[in-house]
Design goal:
The protein is mainly alpha-helical. It is built from ten helices and two strands; from the N terminus they run H-H-H-H-H-H-H-H-H-E-E-H. A hairpin with a 6-residue loop joins strand 1 and strand 2.
């Protein structure tokens, strides 16, 4: 669609050069330029030609009446419609190329204003008597890249579905203030939306920072808790280990405390001890055996019991047992 606008501007340039030349002083000459420009098959924009001084001079009181209508005609080609041409008196008669051009330009304007774009509405606005001629006009507009449309003659009512329109119509000067107010309102709405988006972005960033700080605090608290637990575990382990060693020492003292060895080489505890006990004949101990005369172990405060035998009831021979009593009361 932008290419169509570029081609239209390029096609209009020769006519603009003619109106700005020194020979464009005659109203007839300028009117002839307007007639040729509006009949050219590739010209669809006319605002640049309309702004030239030679064309604007046609509206002065000194211009003959037969040429004044060309200024209004060019304005209708720039932003008007076929219906406006039909309702305006005193305008020049159009040739076939001009009539086709004005109907095509009017189709662009009607495509943006009429919904739905029915065959009947277009035929009435463009003064087209039959549906076949209307379809031919729409087909020409499609192949000229003026619109993107699809004909639907089988629908009820038959319609023309236009999806895109080329930007080839000029803006009417009276509507500029209205367009400015519309665009200003649209700009204000866009500004409000942008401010709202920026406020949401600021909130998200602030919440992200808060979440990061909270996460860091939770991580530090967890690390401190783990470190404190590890320190307490080591202290408790030491206490438990010390308690077990103390208990073991106490038990060892109770176990070996009844036997004291005079020699320093024994270390105070007996690693190998033998205990001979006879639960049945413990009361028949008849003496003590002192092993100090042997030059071996020096047993202090200990006594050795010798069992004379199991008695007649057992019917066995006499057995000698040695008992190293630990903490036994005599």
């Amino acid at each position: 669609m932008d290419q169509a606008h570029s081609r239209a501007l390029e096609a209009l340039q020769p006519f603009i050069h003619l109106t700005t030349s020194s020979t464009a002083s005659s109203p007839r000459f300028v009117a002839n330029i307007i007639a040729n420009a509006t009949s050219h098959p590739n010209t669809y924009v006319f605002a640049e030609l309309l702004e030239t001084s030679a064309v604007q001079a046609l509206g002065s009181a000194d211009t003959p009446e037969e040429f004044r209508g060309y200024l209004k005609l060019l304005e209708i080609f720039a932003w008007g419609t076929w219906q406006e041409y039909q309702e305006t008196p005193g305008l020049p008669t159009l040739n076939d190329q001009q009539a086709l051009k004005l109907r095509l330009l009017s189709l662009l304007s009607l495509s943006s204003t009429i919904r739905p774009l029915t065959y009947q509405a277009l035929m009435q606005a463009l003064s087209i008597p039959t549906a076949v001629k209307l379809e031919s006009l729409v087909t020409t507009a499609i192949y000229s890249s003026l619109i993107v449309a699809r004909l639907s003659p089988a629908t009820n009512p038959p319609t023309v579905n236009v999806t895109a329109v080329a930007p080839l119509r000029d803006v009417r000067p009276q509507t500029v203030s209205t367009l400015i107010s519309i665009l200003s309102e649209w700009e204000g709405r866009c500004g409000d939306i942008i401010n709202g988006i920026e406020a949401e972005i600021a909130k998200i960033k602030d919440q992200t920072v808060r979440n990061s700080i909270l996460k860091r605090q939770c991580t530090l608290a967890l690390e401190k808790a783990i470190a404190a637990d590890m320190d307490g575990g080591e202290d408790n382990t030491g206490l438990r280990s010390g308690g077990r060693n103390t208990k073991h020492s106490l038990r060892g003292g109770r176990t070996a405390g009844g036997i004291r060895f005079g020699g320093s080489s024994t270390g105070g505890n007996i690693s190998n001890k033998r205990e001979y006990s006879d639960d049945q004949d413990d009361d028949d101990d008849d003496g003590y055996f002192d092993n100090a005369s042997d030059g071996g172990l020096d047993v202090s405060g200990s006594r050795m019991e010798i069992d004379e035998g199991a008695g007649a009831s057992r019917g066995a021979t006499r057995q000698t047992k040695r008992l190293l009593g630990v903490g036994r009361k005599t």
